[in-house]
Amino acid sequence: MIEDILLKALGKIGIETDFVEVEIPRHEALGDISTPVAMLLSKKLRKSPALIAESIIAAIDAPDIFQTIERAGAGFINFRFKPSYLCDELRKLYSRESDYLRPNVGKGRKIQIEFVSANPTGPLHLGHGRGAALGAAVANLLSAAGFSVTKEFYVNDAGRQVKLLGESVFARYKTIANTPYDFPTDGYHGDYVEELAKGIHATYGDKFSLSGFDEVEVSQFFIAYSYTAMLSEIKKDLSDFGVEFDRWQSEKELFTDGTVTKAINALRGNGFIYEQDSAVWFKATAFGDEKDRVIIKTDGQYTYFASDIAYHILKLDRGFDEIINIWGADHHGYIPRIRAVIQAAGHDENKLVVLLVQMVMLLRGGVPVQMSKRAGEFVTLRDVTNEVGRDITRFIFLTRRPDSQLEFDMEAVKKESPENPVYYIQYAYARINSVFGKAQERNISLSFDDDINLSGLDSPEELQLIKKLIFYPTAFLTAVRTREPHRITFYLQELAGQFHPFYYKHRILDEAEPLTRARLMLCACVKIVIKEGLNILGVSTPDKM
RNA sequence: GCCCUCUUAGCUCAGUAGGAUAGAGCACAGGAUUCCUAAUCCUGGGGCCGCAGGUUCGAAUCCUGCAGGGGGCACCA
Fold first, then answer.
1. In this structure, is residue A486 part of a structural domain?
2. Where residue A452 sits, what CATH number does that domain have?
3. Nearest nt by C1' to A302 Cα
4. Which of A65, A81, A97 is the last residue of a domain?
């Protein structure tokens, strides 16, 4: 919008460019919006920024929009909007709602996002929750921006970890059946393992008491039973956390349906597979990885990497324009080899976007909570949401950049809860609802036409609130471009931070008719934007608090 | 040892594509409600943006080095 006006003005004075930087000044006193473009052009044009700024200002033709346009500082151009323009935009926001709030930059391009993908060997912990909250929010964000988004969970149902789980359950089962069996090294120790064993014993009795785990059908039964049970628990955890997936991709299936073989053959055809020391290797160094990687071990077994190759090639073959992986930061070393795979398969490596999520440090009153998955001692996602609530948990995860470590102090989060930022935003929403209820009791209409008179909205609080509202699309687009939903979180805190002072200082319902209606309309817009933002974050919007 | 990442107010963290005088919440101190929800509002103190160089009109932001936290360097997943 403003960019277009500037581009046009630049064209008038003979400057061709396709991007103009526009920003909101740090201090309100400087103006509503500002551009440093004159300074940036100074070197190229060999003229002083001041002179350039003046000629740009002279070339701008938008009398309906700007109250003032001034040159300031080292060569900034600062703009101040006319109140009438702000009101026009507010009307647009209200009447066009989703068109206004969701600029379609995706244009239907297909994005696949894979997240959580926890091994089905135990319940989800808090770190998975962070990945889940982020993945869901990124997916919501991109859908809102007009991308066609598919959410996937990759199920590691093949390989060593599920086998270990099966064997751990088998060992517990044998104990129950009074035919002891050595607990596997590195086995899983959690209570849930015990529960699974009890479940099997309850249904099948001593049927397997004389069997060994080396009997194929026995081990297969225990493995499949155990991970299937864990997977359905994970699904339930995620669903209760408000996170749904479009597709659950089984790793095992990639082997059985030939996807792995096909992918490896494709890479072999391109000359990136070779045999050495009786193992099969992928030539990752051809694309800058540190070393080549084994895909079939000396013992004939595939590595995890083999199925991962297949999955990533499959994703791209399915026609996605972008594939996003949300990984724990401990997997960052894995990125170069996946990028290598993508290039070796003849795809554009930039189609892969990896968002790294740092660990969550769980604290209680400032003291770290010790956790060891191996020993079965950990606080699950469910434990945390039960204690502090789902909205707070999701919100906290989205108030930090994903790649910075996060301290999650259960006591602090609960203690601060009356003034918790998530409540601050939800409260603004609930307050508006409450006012709307009162308005209805008084038979004041809550629908607003395009010609509603908003001229009464002239106080600093009102004008600032309107500005904040109509800048939502800007914040949204930044979040979309960077794939960073936390920008929405901060925007919403600022919006609520403009709303509450407005509410405190101004009566909404007891004014003369036009002003009351104008303020109700303003509130309606705040409500719309809060709902839009919280929906993206996956946080609820309670009508009452 | 090599690689990645982080270091901003007492604490937890933002900082928009290098821009103007460095931002929020919490905590702390004081104040506000005869009135639509006080889970609210107002005022205040608080900073060598880890350290040192460099790039330039301009650096918390980009580059190099150093220190500290976290992570990774498997024919594990």
1. yes
2. 1.10.730.10
3. B75
4. A81
Q: What b-and-e string marks burial along A451-488, b requiring 16 or more CB atoms within 10 Å of the CB?
A: ebebebbeeebbbbbbbbbbbbebbbeebbeebbbbbb
| Nucleic strand B under 7 Å from the C-beta of A374 | no
**pLDDT value of position A361:** 86
In this structure, is the CB of residue A510 within 7 Å of any atom belonging to strand B?
A: yes
Which residue type occupies A41? L
Q: Report residues 60-79 of A contacting strand B, contact meaning Cβ closer than 7 Å.
A: 72-76, 78
What's the Å distance between residue A262 CA and nucleotide B28 C1'? 65
Return the residue matching tokens 């869901």.
Answer: A136
Task: Give yes or no for CB of A44 within 7 Å of strand B.
Answer: no
The SS3 call for residue A19 is coil
Are the C-beta atoms of residues A517 and A454 closer than 8 Å to each other?
no
Which of A26, A50, A81 is at the close of a domain?
A81
Count how many domains chain A has: 2
Residues 263-322 of chain A sitting with CB below 7 angstroms of strand B? 277-279, 290, 293-294, 297-299, 301, 303-305
Residue A1: pLDDT above 80?
no
A214-253 residues near strand B (Cβ < 7 Å): none
For residue A522, is it within any domain?
Answer: yes
For residue A253, the one-letter residue type is E
Residue type at A458? D
CATH number at residue A54: 3.30.1360.70
Nearest CA to the C1' of B71 belongs to which residue?
Answer: A330
pLDDT digits (tens, 9 = 90+) for A326-365: 999 889 989 999 999 999 999 998 999 999 999 888 888 8
Question: A98 CA to B4 C1', in Å?
Answer: 40
ipTM of predicted complex: 0.95
- A14: domain range? 2-81
Nucleotide with minimal C1' distance from the CA of A438 is B36
Q: Which residue is nearest to nucleotide B6 (CA to C1')?
A: A404
Sheet arrangement for strand A273-276: A273-276, A279-282, A293-296
Q: Are A424 and A503 in contact (CB under 8 A)?
A: no
pLDDT at A373: 55
Where is pLDDT greater, at A84 or A15?
A84
B strand bases under 7 Å from protein CB: 3-7, 12-17, 19-27, 35-42, 57-58, 69-77
Query: What is the helix (H) or strand (E) element at residue A84, kind and residue range?
Result: helix A83-101
Determine the nucleotide nearest to A297 by Cα–C1' distance.
Answer: B75
Contact A113, A139 (CB under 8 A): yes
Its pTM stands at 0.94
pLDDT digits (tens, 9 = 90+) for A141-174: 999 999 999 999 999 999 889 999 999 999 999 9
Is the Cβ atom of A107 within 7 Å of strand B at any atom? no
In this prediction, residue A41 carries a pLDDT of 87
Q: Is residue A279 part of a domain?
A: no
Q: Give whole-number Cα distances, A135 to A130, A321, A476, in Å.
A: 8, 18, 16
Residue A283 belongs to a domain: no
Whether the CB-CB separation of A225 and A196 falls below 8 Å is answered with: yes
